[in-house]
Amino acid sequence: MAKREPYRNRIEILQGTLDLMILQTLAWGPQHGYGIAQAIKLHSSDAFQVETGALYPALHRLERQAWIDAEWKVSENKQRTRVYKLTAAGRRQLAAERSKWARFSEAIAGILQPAARGSET
């Protein structure tokens, strides 16, 4: 029986895409860091597993840009946790990033499936 390779089917996250995924996750409601990582993993069918070494620097960067805000709260199990939420500026940025992502996806699809666009070579 072959040993399972946990990262074999992992998809590398494109530069800038993590910010988009974090903003989208927070559009669903405030969340702590672990919850954000779990939501990304769940909604990507385990294709994206965001490590803390990438997640927290991204959260701090988004907070410095005023796209998210954070506050300390006490969790149900009485632990202090930092909860992040989307700001109005973050909602505008999310809309802009979603638009850019749609154009990017369409452009890639045009290259991968030129027949679908009427220019097969």
Account of the protein in words:
By secondary structure, the chain is an alpha+beta fold. The chain has one domain: Arc Repressor Mutant, subunit A. Helices cover 50% and strands 13% of the residues. It is built from four helices and three strands; from the N terminus they run αβααββα. The chain has helices spanning 17-27, 33-43, 52-64, 88-112; strands at residues 31-32, 68-74, 80-86. The chain has a three-stranded antiparallel sheet. Helix 1 (17-27) crosses helix 2 and helix 1 crosses helix 4. It is elongated, with a radius of gyration of 18 Å. It starts with 16 loop residues before the first helix and ends in a 9-residue tail after the last helix.
List the helices and strands and how they pair.
Layout: H1 17-27, E1 31-32, H2 33-43, H3 52-64, E2 68-74, E3 80-86, H4 88-112
Helix pairs in contact: 1-2, 1-4
Short synopsis of the structure:
Helices cover 50% and strands 13% of the residues. The chain contains 4 helices and 3 strands; from the N terminus they run αβααββα. It is elongated and about 55 Å long.
CATH-level-4 superfamily name: Winged helix-like DNA-binding domain superfamily/Winged helix DNA-binding domain
Number of discrete domains: 1
What's the average pLDDT?
Answer: 88
Give the CA-CA distance, first to last residue.
43 Å
Radius of gyration, CA atoms, in whole angstroms: 18 Å
Name the helix and strand elements from N-terminus to C-terminus, one letter apiece: HEHHEEH
